[in-house]
Design goal:
This protein is α/β, with parallel strands linked by helices. The protein has two domains: 11-323, ABC transporter transmembrane region fold (Up-down Bundle); 343-580, P-loop containing nucleotide triphosphate hydrolases (Rossmann fold), CATH 3.40.50.300. Helices cover 63% and strands 10% of the residues. It is built from 21 helices and ten strands. The chain has helices at 11-17, 19-54, 60-109, 112-118, 120-162, 164-170, 173-183, 185-211, 213-218, 222-259, 262-274, 283-320, 383-389, 412-418, 433-438, 445-451, 455-459, 478-491, 508-521, 556-562, 564-580; strands spanning 343-352, 358-368, 372-377, 397-402, 405-406, 419-422, 496-500, 526-530, 542-547, 550-554. Strands 6-7-8-3-9-10 form a six-stranded mixed β-sheet, with helices on both faces. A four-stranded antiparallel β-sheet has the order 2-1-4-5, covered by helices on one side. Helix 19 links the parallel strand 7 and strand 8 (526-530). The longest helix is centred in the first third of the chain and has 50 residues, at 60-109. The mean pLDDT is 87. Bound molecules: adenosine-5'-triphosphate. Adenosine-5'-triphosphate (ATP) is lined by residues 353, 355, 359, 379-385. Pfam families: ABC_membrane, ABC_tran. It is found in: Cell membrane. Residues 23-312 form the ABC transmembrane type-1 domain. It is a multi-pass membrane protein.
C-alpha cells in the first residue's frame, strides 16, 4: 500500500500525525471537564445540607458522605487533568520537533542566494521563534478545546436546566467578549508580525557584530556599531512591548465583560429563592447556579484569550509556510554504475544577477572527460559567476548540458550528483577534521589528506584526524581550511568539479604538488579550475580567458600567441616566480 505523503505545509497534517496522543488527550480531557461539573453540584448540595442540619432536618452523616464524594470527585478530576496536561505537552513537543525538522530540511536544500536574500537573522527567527509560537498556538488550541469548549457546553447545559430564562440572559455577555477578541485580531497580527521582523533584524545585527568584530575593532568603528546595535535593540524592545500589550492587557477586559451577567443572577436569582421569580429555588440551587456561572465566565475569557494565541500562531505560520512545503525525498541511487560526464557543453550562455546587470555574455565551450580547464581573466570579469552558474541558483540563458542532458532540467538530486563545487568560503563545520571530509562516507580519510598535502599537519594536531576544527574552521589557518575543503570535494568527487581559486592561500610548491595529485585523482572527471595564478596553466587542457563577461577559449599556447593580456599576465607571473625561487 502506498504511504500517504506528509503534507508538511498543512497545519491539520501535524494534528493527524499525532492522533494517538490526541485520543489520550480527548479521553482525559472529557473526564476532567465533565468531572468539573461535580464541583458546583457538590458545593450546592453541601450548602443545602448545612442549612438542613441547622434547621434540624438532616444529620451530620449525610454531610460526611457529601464531603467524601466531593473529595473523590476532585481527586478524579485532578488525576485526569494531570494526564491531559502531560499529553498536551507531549503533543506540542512532537509538533515543534517535526516542524523544526521540516524547516531545517528545507533550509538545507535552499539555494545560498535565496537564503542570503531572505537574511540570516530572519531565517534564524523563523527556525526558532516562529516554530515555537506555532506549536504553542496548537498546544493552547488543543488544551482549550476541552478546558473551554467541553466545559462551556457542560456549564451552559447545567445553567439552562436550573432556569433557562435567567441562563440565556446572563449568557449574553460571554459572546460579546469573543467578538471583542475577534475584533482585536488585526492588532494582534500586526504587532506580532512587526515584532518578528524586528527580532530577525536584531539577530542579523548580532551575527554581523560577531562575524565582523575584528574589522570594527581595527577600524575603530565600535562606538558607531554600538549605537547602531542599540538602535536595533530599542526598536526590538518597542515592538516586543507593543505585541505584549495586546496579549496581556486584553484578557482582564474579556473577563470583566464575561462576568457582567452576574448582575442578572443576583437580581433574578434572589427572586427565585424568594419564590417570586421564574423558578422556585432553594439556597443550594442558587449557590450551584452562581458557582456554575462564575466558572463559565472564567472559561469564556480563556476562550477569548485562546483566539489571541491562535492569531499569534497564524502570523508565525504565514511566515514559515513557504519553507514548509513537502520536499521530495532524495531518491536512493541504486545503480552500481559510476556516474560520469563524457562531455560538458556550454552553448551561448548569458547570465545576469537579479539586479539586472549582464555578467556573462555568450559563453561557449566544450570539455571532455578527463580534461582540466583553467579559467582566468581580469578582476571582476565574471570568473566566479561562471562557476556559480553551474549551481543553477539563478536562471541562465543558453544551454549547459552534461552528455546532452540540460542542467536546469535535471532534478535537484541529479544535479547535485553531477556538479561538485568549491567556492571561496570553505564552509567547514564545527566537527572533526575527519567528519568534515567524509561527511558520512566510509572511505579512508588519509588518502584525501595526502592528496591535498595536509596529512603531516593533521598528524601533528593534538587529536589527529579527530581534532575539532571549530565553527567555520576557526582553529585552522586559511591555507589549512582551504585544503580541508578541497579534500572534502575530492572525497565526494562529482563528474564535473568546479574549483574556485582553491590554491589562493598556498605557496607555489604546495600548489604544484596538490595539482599533480589532483590530476591523478580526476582522470574520469571534468575540472573547471578558476584561478588568478597562471603557473599551472601550461599543464591544463584548455584555458578560458575572460574579459568583460566574454570568453576566449583555446589552448595555453594559442592564447599566449593571440591574447596579449594573457601573455603579459603569464610572463609577469613567471618572471616574478623565477625571481622568488
Ligand atoms: N550576488 C551578486 N549579485 C549581483 N552582482 C554580483 C553578485 N556577485 C557578483 N556580482 C557582480 O558580478 C561581477 C563579476 O563578479 P565575479 O565574482 O564573478 O568576478 P570574478 O572575476 O570572479 O572576480 P575576482 O577576480 O575579483 O575574483 C562583479 O561586477 C560583481 O559585482
Amino acid at each position: 500500500m502506498k504511504k500517504e505523503r506528509f503534507q508538511s505545509d498543512r497545519v491539520l497534517a501535524y494534528f493527524r500525525l499525532e492522533w494517538k496522543v490526541l485520543v489520550l488527550i480527548t479521553l482525559s480531557g472529557l473526564i476532567y471537564n465533565l468531572g468539573l461539573l461535580a464541583g458546583p453540584w457538590f458545593e450546592g448540595k453541601m450548602t443545602g445540607c448545612l442549612v438542613d442540619i441547622l434547621n434540624g432536618n438532616s444529620e451530620t452523616a449525610a454531610m460526611l458522605s457529601l464531603v467524601l464524594g466531593y473529595v473523590a470527585a476532585i481527586a478524579i478530576v485532578q488525576v485526569s487533568r494531570y494526564v491531559k496536561r502531560f499529553y498536551v505537552r507531549r503533543f506540542a513537543n512532537n509538533v515543534n520537533r517535526r516542524m523544526k525538522q521540516v524547516l531545517y530540511r528545507s533550509l538545507v536544500t535552499k539555494s545560498r542566494a535565496s537564503l542570503k536574500e531572505e537574511g540570516e537573522g530572519d531565517v534564524m527567527t523563523k527556525a526558532i521563534l516562529d516554530v515555537d509560537d506555532c506549536a504553542e498556538g496548537m498546544r493552547k488550541f488543543t488544551t482549550e478545546i476541552f478546558d473551554t469548549g467541553v466545559a462551556l457546553a457542560a456549564y451552559a447545559l447545567m445553567l439552562l436546566c436550573y432556569d433557562w430564562r435567567l441562563a440565556l440572559l446572563s449568557m449574553l455577555f460571554p459572546p460579546i467578549s469573543y467578538i471583542t477578541a475577534e475584533k482585536m485580531k488585526k492588532m494582534i497580527q500586526r504587532t506580532g508580525a512587526a515584532y518578528k521582523k524586528q527580532s530577525g533584524l536584531l539577530s542579523a545585527a548580532t551575527l554581523d557584530r560577531a562575524q565582523n568584530a575584528i574589522t570594527y575593532r581595527v577600524f575603530g568603528c565600535e562606538k558607531e556599531r554600538q549605537e547602531a546595535y542599540e538602535a536595533d535593540l530599542t526598536a526590538y524592545e518597542k515592538s516586543a512591548i507593543k505585541a505584549n500589550i495586546w496579549n496581556t492587557a486584553m484578557p482582564p477586559v474579556y473577563r470583566v465583560i464575561s462576568m457582567a451577567g452576574l448582575l442578572f443572577i443576583l437580581c433574578f436569582g434572589q427572586k427565585n429563592v424568594l419564590g417570586t421569580g421564574w423558578k422556585s429555588w432553594s439556597i443550594a440551587a442558587f449557590t450551584t447556579f452562581l458557582a456554575c456561572f462564575v466558572k463559565l465566565s472564567v472559561k469564556s475569557s480563556s476562550a477569548a484569550k485562546l483566539f489571541n494565541a491562535v492569531h499569534k500562531a497564524q502570523v508565525s505560520w504565514n511566515r514559515i509556510k513557504p519553507l514548509m512545503a513537502p520536499k521530495e525525498e532524495p531518491e536512493e541511487d541504486r545503480s552500481q554504475e559510476k556516474k560520469v560526464c563524457r562531455e560538458l557543453k556550454v552553448e551561448h550562455v548569458n547570465f545576469a544577477y537579479p539586479d539586472g546587470k549582464k555578467i556573462l555574455d555568450d559563453i561557449s565551450f566544450t570539455a571532455k572527460k578527463g580534461e582540466i580547464i583553467g579559467i582566468t581573466g581580469s578582476v571582476a570579469c565574471g570568473k566566479s559567476t561562471l562557476g556559480k552558474v553551474f549551481l543553477c541558483e539563478y536562471p541562465y540563458e543558453g544551454s549547459i548540458s552534461c552528455d546532452e542532458k540540460e542542467l536546469r532540467a535535471m532534478r535537484d538530486t541529479e544535479r547535485t550528483g553531477t556538479i561538485g563545487y568549491l567556492g571561496h568560503d570553505p564552509e567547514l563545520f564545527n566537527d572533526s577534521v575527519k567528519n568534515n571530509i567524509l561527511m558520512g562516507e566510509n572511505k579512508n580519510v588519509d588518502d584525501f589528506l595526502k592528496a591535498v598535502c595536509l596529512d603531516q599537519e593533521v598528524a601533528g594536531m593534538e587529536d589527529g584526524t579527530e581534532t575539532l576544527v571549530g565553527n567555520g574552521g576557526v582553529r585552522l589557518s586559511g591555507g589549512q581550511g582551504q585544503r580541508l575543503a578541497l579534500a572534502r570535494t575530492l572525497c565526494h568527487k562529482k563528474p564535473v568539479l568546479i574549483l574556485d581559486d582553491p590554491f589562493s592561500a598556498l605557496d607555489k610548491t604546495t600548489e604544484r604538488q596538490i595539482f599533480a595529485n589532483l590530476k591523478e585523482l580526476v582522470r574520469d572527471n571534468i575540472v573547471l579550475l578558476i584561478s588568478h595564478r597562471l603557473y599551472l596553466f601550461p599543464e591544463m587542457d584548455q584555458i578560458i580567458w575572460m574579459e568583460n563577461g566574454k570568453a576566449k577559449v583555446d589552448t595555453h599556447e594559442n592564447l599566449l600567441r593571440e591574447v596579449p593580456e594573457y601573455r603579459e599576465l603569464f610572463e609577469e607571473q613567471e618572471e616574478k616566480g623565477g625571481r622568488e625561487s
